[in-house]
Write a structure and sequence with these properties.
The protein is an alpha/beta fold and 674 residues long. It has 24 helices and 27 strands.
Length: 674
């Protein structure tokens, strides 16, 4: 005897609720224009819940012409743990939009794509996603059904909509990481044979990846050593790295074509006693699972399979226009990349096959000197944290930040030798911060303990950020090195216990160094406005140079005009006050003169880190002008207004570069002075 339960119908719901079948249909299908009362709607929905009523899909298809089903056809995606993100991203968007996903796997079988395509059409799917493990050009079966198709991680010869990783931008960004870290003697391992690269049916993106790499190196005037490779696997990567080091033993960095090649490079470096990253930095692409398990962890550009799948599904569901889209490959910062000491930064690769000592080679004493850490010229003290940025499109990303740390990054990229007194945790976020600072040549004065601070930044339509903080500040400046400039500011100067320690640091260094300060007030942290105002004004009085935003001034002096507040600050101690006003330029006030500078007009990505970049470039300019060390106060007063104006306009240009790209990403010296 059958025990199968009969499916509940609209008639059953109508009988239970005491409503007509037509009324129940209108309510359960959310038809517009109904004049049914709220009580009637509640009765019907309650009855449907009691009877476990589910709409009949077949009836809905007949009525709407839609099955609310997406087809996903892959070659090998479902069989690979890494690329299955294509399915994960598409599935997530489908679920949110109340769609089911039907999945088929061709496994590379001849005719498999055509048969899978026919199956999807037979099931009357509303759209088809074609997911490819390796990005390439494919031929799709012809169809007259009008079903939309989107190719994920590839392209079709018939020009269907598609989504690809932005390989050219990734190649440029990864190579630029090496350049910004000061590397000039670089080996590139992984050029594939020309017949492979030129055949779009084998790969549609390798050439773009290497175009980006070449562009970054050409821009910096670097000619890397190159080693070709038959395929991107660990064993060929191992053999190619052996060849590279035999011919160019003085390389300080290796750029591997993918993580498998990088794995082979790791083995060679280990066998030869070359430390990563102290002796040789290694960067790569794809972010395969092994990248995070290597020691040290591999810095690599992640293939954004999840995002590609999500965007493709959004296209099919009408949430995004059908077209040809590129998705950013984010760089995953780990510990395999380090900045070079300053003396090594401008030395090109010496080509020698094999390497033997020559008269032009430095002797052992000179080699030791080349690796000596240079003297710190700027000491920075304050918070470092992880910025968790939430954008209008609801995407979220984490990146290292913190106002004082951003100043240090700016100075490192401009060729200075900064040290940062800060607090970082002994957690994964702390490791990311240490790697980030090291990549721009910022040395760290910190014992990792506890948790790493975070700041959640929410961006508005203009790219401006508001913040919520979770802070752990326990700064210790006991072992801070000597420097000719000391900079502090932001949260750490107003919250204890760091505030008292930083005031003591400034007091002890004021006669021997130029003191710079940026209040960078965070109103969301203020529990006692008067106390914060008092503390910030004390810091201003102790500084030689103050850079503040117009928002800082409005908080500290709500009843004063900007120029009057700045003049009041100058009368209390500083020799120079600069008030930045976003796109409206900056106000400059010193004893006996007031003037303004303009801000370059750029398309704003966001404003994160703009003020910190300005501060860092201002310090760099003052160092170049000789305003540092003992007697800095007198030399600051002797700078002519015209010279000061040029110096500040350069700082404004630096800030404009930062706002033109997402996140706190200040320019390098080459970018700023191009």
């Amino acid at each position: 005897m059958s025990t199968q339960r009969r499916r509940t119908t609209l008639a059953d719901v109508a009988e239970r609720s005491g409503m007509s079948k037509a009324a129940v249909s209108m309510i359960m299908n959310d038809r517009p224009g109904s004049r049914l009362s709220a009580d009637a709607v509640e009765r019907v929905r309650a009855a449907a819940a009691e009877l476990d009523y589910r709409p009949n899909p077949a009836a809905q298809v007949l009525r709407r012409g839609k099955t609310r089903t997406i087809g996903f056809i892959s070659d090998e995606v479902t069989l690979t743990r890494h690329a299955s993100g294509l399915i994960g991203g598409a599935l997530e968007v489908s679920k949110v939009n109340d769609h089911t996903m039907l999945i088929a796997e061709t496994q590379g079988i001849e005719g498999g794509l055509a048969r899978a395509f026919e199956t999807m059409i037979d099931h009357r799917v509303d759209g088809i996603l074609i997911g490819l493990l390796g990005a390439r050009l494919i031929d799709l079966p012809s169809t007259s059904t009008g079903v939309p198709v989107v190719v994920l991680n590839g392209a079709s010869s018939s020009g269907h909509a598609n989504v690809l990783p932005d390989e050219r931008a990734a190649g440029y960004a990864v190579a630029k990481r090496l350049v910004d870290a000061g590397h000039r003697r670089i080996g590139v391992v992984g050029d594939l044979p020309r017949d492979v690269v030129s055949d779009l049916r084998q790969t549609a993106t390798v050439a773009l990846r290497f175009e980006g790499i070449a562009a970054a190196f050409a821009e910096a005037g670097i000619e890397p050593a190159r080693v070709d490779i038959p395929e991107w696997q660990p064993e060929p990567g191992y053999e190619a790295t052996v060849a590279l080091l035999d011919r160019h033993p003085d390389v300080t960095a290796i750029l591997a074509a993918n993580d498998g090649v990088a794995f082979g490079a790791y083995q060679v470096l280990l066998e030869r006693g070359r430390r990563i990253p102290q002796d040789v930095s290694v960067v790569s692409f794809d972010d395969e699972i092994l990248a995070g398990y290597l020691r040290p962890g591999l810095t690599t550009a992640r293939l954004p399979y999840q995002e590609i799948g999500a965007l493709g599904a959004s296209m099919l569901l009408g949430r995004h226009a059908l077209g040809h889209e590129l998705v950013t490959m984010p760089i995953i910062e780990r510990d395999s990349l380090a900045a070079l000491p300053q003396p090594l930064r401008h030395q090109p690769l010496r080509h020698s096959t094999p390497h033997h000592p020559t008269p032009s080679d430095p002797d052992p004493a000179e080699r030791t000197a080349m690796h000596t850490t240079p003297t710190t010229d700027v000491l920075i003290a304050g918070e470092t944290l992880i910025d968790i940025v939430r954008r209008l499109d609801r995407t979220q990303a984490e990146s290292p930040g913190g106002s004082p740390a951003n100043v240090g990054i700016t100075l490192g990229r401009l060729g200075r030798v900064p040290a940062l007194v800060t607090h970082v945790g002994d957690d994964e976020r702390g490791a990311a911060i240490r790697s980030w600072l090291d990549a721009s040549g910022v040395s760290l004065v910190s014992a990792p303990t506890g948790r790493t601070s975070t700041a959640q930044a929410t961006l508005d339509a203009d790219g401006a950020a508001t913040y919520e903080f979770d802070l752990s500040l326990d700064l210790d400046a006991t072992d801070a090195p000597d420097a000719s400039v000391v900079h502090t500011g932001s949260i750490a100067t107003v919250l204890e216990p760091s505030a008292s320690r930083l005031r003591a640091l400034v007091e002890s260094r004021r006669d021997a160094a130029l003191i710079t300060y940026d209040p960078n007030i965070r109103p969301t942290l203020v529990d006692d406005a008067e106390r914060v105002r008092r503390t910030a004004l004390e810091c201003i009085a102790r500084a030689h140079v103050v850079k503040a935003s117009d928002e800082d001034v409005a908080f500290l002096h709500p009843d004063l005009a900007l120029v009057d507040a700045a003049k009041q600050w100058v009368s209390s101690g500083p020799g120079l006050v600069v008030v930045t006003r976003g796109g409206d330029g900056a106000l400059v006030v010193r004893a006996g003169s007031v003037f303004e500078i303009a801000t370059p007009r750029v398309t704003v990505a966001d404003t994160v880190g703009a003020g910190d970049t300005f501060m860092g470039a201002l310090i760099d300019g003052l160092l170049t002008a000789g305003v540092s060390g003992p007697g800095a106060e007198e030399r600051l007063g002797a700078i002519a207004d015209d010279d000061l104006r040029r110096l500040l306009e350069r700082a404004a240009r630096a800030a404009s570069v930062t706002v033109s790209r997402p996140g706190a990403n200040p320019p390098t010296l080459a970018e700023l002075d191009a």
